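Appendix B. Chain record.
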Amino acid sequence: MAGFRSLARQVRDPRCDLALRRYSLRKCLERFAPYGHRATWDHLCSRAGFDPEDRSPDPARLVAALEELEEARAVWLAYEVEFARRRKKEKHEGLRRPGSVDDWHRLTWGGFGVAWCDDPRVHPREPLAEVLRRLIAALEREPGTACPVCGGERLVWTYDLDHEPSSGPVCTQCGILVPRPVLTPEALEHARRGELLASA
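Structure tokens predicted for this chain:
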């Protein structure tokens, strides 16, 4: 099975058939897809300027989509390295019980679905790397009451998501499943009740 980097080489290789280059970009999303496969594909296509169903997109647009994905992957891999370093240090110091961020991180190892979007057409518009930087910053500070990606204040608890966890607070503005560790208990409770926080 080809890894992300070998698939990326195929996307860039002008000697490869255009269908293979497009297919290789889609296969990259099996290795790294922050919004989930379909929503990440929709995001990359719209940002690079080709239709998700286009079977022969401009090769330059395919490469532009790949470059955005690679930049975001580099951001996430750097976070995972730091995360592993921190956990190793904590274990060495006797802190064996992981916290809520650690529980969430275990479900997103490798970067799949870190900012899950259940509706593939509703996702943040900013570059993927910027979205991940905002999400990581939120994971590293005290919990808040709004979406860490777009600042949206309307979070609605949604059930039967095609993801693990299968329910949680979804931002009605950018569509991401907001990681529970970045929200205060009050924000989570208001999301469950479908209410806007008065302080938000």
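Further analysis of this model is presented in Appendix C.
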